[in-house]
Amino acid sequence: MSNRRTRPGTRLQYINTSPISITHWNMSIRDGLRERSIRYAVRALLYPVYGGSPRIVYLPLSPSYDFEPGTPIWTEDIDVRRWFPSGWKETVLSNIAGIDHSLRNNFSVFTARDVRHALPNECMRTLGSPDVKGNVVVIRRGRRQTLQVTHMHPSERSLVDILVTRWFASETEDENTEDGIDPSPAETESGDGA
Q1: N or C end: fewer C-beta atoms under 10 angstroms in the chain?
Q2: Where are the compositionally biased (Acidic residues) regions (predicted)?
């Protein structure tokens, strides 16, 4: 990371996504669940700005949520502030971009609201999406109750990798088309419009 001045949230975003920091975070959440100081946490997939591979992270309930066992938990009940110090936006994906087939579960993708102050996402770059800035968090939604969150299974990582990289590629392609840039046919066919 360079020595030039950065916003405090930007530096925090980098520090919070180091492998050791993620490991400590997950341990503290699991300890809190065991001690009952944290009532509930959902497993999600984090694509960290620091780089490396996507990691399973535990996301606790928002401090403002009054948890009652047996009540449904929605994405707005989950606390993602650690990964998005300058705010976030949520997009729900129900199919893989370019494929006309619905997924069994929908996935909520959280991204930085203001990418001007977000760091480039090294993890997404290694997956072929070089223009992504800020952390990316993916939460799995229920099959029948599509608004309710469910735990991400480690076995779903490959599917989610494809889902997210294709979505970012389609978003980049859409932005280029809106800006008057016509993506080449090779880029359109391969899905590498980024």
Answers
A1: N
A2: 172-181
